[in-house]
Amino acid sequence: MALQAQVLYDFTAEPGNHELSIRQGDTITVIDQTVGGGWIEAQDSSGRTGLVPEGYLQVIGAADGAGESRSGGGASVTNAAEGWSHQGVANTQQADVIDYDDGEWDDDWDDQSEAGSRGYDQVEEEGGAAGQSTNGSTMKISLNRFPFHKGPSAEVYLLAKAPADSRERLPVFIGEVGPVWLYPSAPLDCLIADPKKESKLYGLKSFIEYQIIPNTTNRPVTHRYKHFDWLYERLLDKFGSALPIPALPDKQVTGRFEVDFIKMRMEQLQSWMTRMCRHPVVSQSSVFQLFLTHRDEKEWKTGKRKAEKDETVGPMIFSLVETEAAELDAINVEQKCEHYSRFTRSMDDGVRELLSVGHTHWKRCTGPLPKEYERIGRAFKNLSTVFTSSGYPGEETLTDALTVAGQTYEEIAELVAQQPQKDLHFLLETNNEYRGMLGCFPDIISVHKSAIEKVKESDRLVLAGKITNGDKKFMSQRLSGMSYTLQAEMNHFHSNRIYDYNRVMQLYLQQQATFYQQIADKLRAALNQFTTL
Amino acid sequence: MALQAQVLYDFTAEPGNHELSIRQGDTITVIDQTVGGGWIEAQDSSGRTGLVPEGYLQVIGAADGAGESRSGGGASVTNAAEGWSHQGVANTQQADVIDYDDGEWDDDWDDQSEAGSRGYDQVEEEGGAAGQSTNGSTMKISLNRFPFHKGPSAEVYLLAKAPADSRERLPVFIGEVGPVWLYPSAPLDCLIADPKKESKLYGLKSFIEYQIIPNTTNRPVTHRYKHFDWLYERLLDKFGSALPIPALPDKQVTGRFEVDFIKMRMEQLQSWMTRMCRHPVVSQSSVFQLFLTHRDEKEWKTGKRKAEKDETVGPMIFSLVETEAAELDAINVEQKCEHYSRFTRSMDDGVRELLSVGHTHWKRCTGPLPKEYERIGRAFKNLSTVFTSSGYPGEETLTDALTVAGQTYEEIAELVAQQPQKDLHFLLETNNEYRGMLGCFPDIISVHKSAIEKVKESDRLVLAGKITNGDKKFMSQRLSGMSYTLQAEMNHFHSNRIYDYNRVMQLYLQQQATFYQQIADKLRAALNQFTTL
Fold first, then answer.
1. Prediction pTM value
2. Are residues A176 and A101 in contact, defined by beta-carbon separation less than 8 angstroms?
3. What whole-number distance in Å separates Cα of residue A349 and Cα of residue B406?
4. Which of A91, A111, A300, B55 is deepest in the core (most CB within 10 A)?
5. What is the DSSP string of A3-49?
6. Which residues of B are annotated as a binding site?
7. Chains A, B: CB contacts under 8 A, how many?
8. What residue ranges define each of the domains in chain B, with the CATH number in brackets?
9. What stretches in chain B show pLDDT beneath 50?
């Protein structure tokens, strides 16, 4: 009994990678779900086999029917099981059975094969959905974002009470700049280090393990990329309606072939974790604390299961808001929301523009420009060689100096080629992070707008007998609370933005000045080799 | 009676310029020879009319038959008259008559129309043959080079006596570096200045006149481009077998649309004249002195006619050599000749390589690179504008600094775009001059090689009774003298080369260092606008 899956999106195979091209609407047969790294081996109707991204598929006739209910949102094979967790295809050697037993999941999850036919790439990409776009907002986000594909409507979450059994609160204070989060007295931070390639099952399955050391406990915990991915999913589910939860790093900015990939990924995971640590709400959440400070495998697994059962996710997060500030009316809320919407959109445009020219500049500085300086250098050196053959007495000063000038331009070529890694890299990475965050705002703004709309029509709802006057009042209070979270979040965003851009611009300009200074100095040294006329 | 001309080369009309496409072998009808600037209006067999370059045509059945005798060398309409002078198409309003009367020539020559339908381009190009290649060696050179298309064979010039009536001598001394020319005690120099657009015939004909002021008389003489061209032709005829006489400037190096053309041409004429002034043989020749120091129109015209009748041209120049140095045998001469041949060829390669990368670099520095810096600057400024709209208090320091950073990159864009004119320009011009000179050596070397061959077979010639033993001895002496001129010339070339490359490399590196220093300083100033973190 072979398992069938429907193709949700077109996928074009890359030659030589044992991939299979599939078209939206095709029905394919799943051959091997244990390939790992987001890939499944499948067979198409004409009998060809190859790897396809599991996120592009939807299992037909899955046991609990959950796949069906989410087809509008493009649910993937991995999301077909209950609880939105990431286990998806269980690691059974019987390819035609999917094991949905949650109790078995942890082990299976860790044991998925990540080596195999896709080699190094596969190790690198573990946990990252293949076919992700590189614009920072992965497909996974748009498929899984709670507010729009699952979870209560604006009406429901505006009226929902905070869970009785939860001690979680989302306090908003009024500070100098307006509504602000409650910042911890000692900021959380963590260091990611020591990436190690680990393998299981006699080397058949390999992956990278990172050490993460939080400044609070100073005790390292070990995580794989897919654990980060799990954390990301949890944070997105829980906070995504109120806070920008940027996607995890994928193959971005500088290209995977230009720097050591593992180092780059670690650097990017570090940036992502640092940003999460800096967020007062995220960093203090139990799921984030679990990730950083669990003491053993048992605590980690228990906490993980608990986090996956968290019900205060999506817009329900707003039920946790607590503030002493005066209630805002819908008009006021709408104005603020519009302002933030405009700001984040124009900043997104600005950041994209900078990234675009930055990438162009990167290519030029690492490609044609140094080649040209090298050619100039070589031309000087060649002339020097020719001149040396003249047999004319006493031109050693010139020929030596010409050689030095040639070497200088060859050195300049190297400087030019290496420079982007020293400055442009950080400018692009920072802007890339911001593009990731800014890409989250449309959804956040949208949750707010639908709440504003609901509150605006609450009079009509009362008249229609759908809600009581008390409900209406409660909805208005809830909307006000939502607005305070948005304002607190924007103020957090602004203060971070000012800090980050100040820092990265200084680093960029400092490095650029040093770079040009070095070239000027080199040229002067070369100049000094020539005889003064 | 319409004048017919045969088309020597294909010419493709440029759209919108009233030009006429013609094919080699076509017969066309000359309509108007008074267009000027190297152009003729013609009609093809299908009745279409338009401008064609006169150098591409050969008059059919010209009165004196001179055109016929030179058809192998591709003689042009302008060269169809006796004496190789540049009068060509006489300026008569009767289009069907060519006036070959030398007595009329001077006036006609100066009166050729250069304005008309081709506007500014026409003024610029006066005297330059249209369709010239831009590689520094114009078609005119290869067509007219004496040794190969006219003039005596190696045998003849090796035996020729110096003209009895000439007081010209070509003395070669032995200096520290070997054979050297006789250098004048005070080096000649001249300044070209004050280009003026002049017109005749009520503005119908216009041209540029330059003032040339030699340092010997300090008295300005006035010349048009075509006078320079005449001088070039005379020098080439007279010295071309012994010395490199580089072509006059044409549209080279930086492109005519990038800088003011007249200024550029004047600069290039200045370089050419400076180089000629620096040459001890050229600068002391009567034709060169005439050009620089004639006191009035009459002296100029008389001198001009005399120069055109000079018989010591082509390899006959070697009959003037005078040296006290010991006679060199053919083997020795051949070795030196081979060495110079190799050197000039490899220097030609080196210079071409530098010019090639220089042109590529020029394009990048004036095109995409500054555009990119401008985009970076704009991106910073845009971000600053967006940030200003945040409404978040206290970020003026950042937004102001970001604006300054943006402006800085816009200024860098300008610096980058302007820089080539300040340094690369001179590097390219110098190398261009050298390419022009180096392009003359193959012909010079070739004259020497054919003389060497003749001397080598002189024993056989004596046996065959073609020459006497006295002739053989004389030929060997003459060859030795030729070798001394080549050595003197190469030593002159080397000492100039060392001077020129020393100078231009220093200028280039100095300007480059200043350029990068300026950028570094600007970036540091921008950096200082940011708050220290």
1. 0.73
2. no
3. 16
4. B55
5. EEEEE-S-B-PPTTTTB--B-TT-EEEEEEEEEETTEEEEE-TTS-E
6. 224, 226, 265
7. 190
8. 3-131 (2.30.30.40), 174-320 (3.30.1520.10), 327-533 (1.20.1270.60)
9. 61-151, 251-259
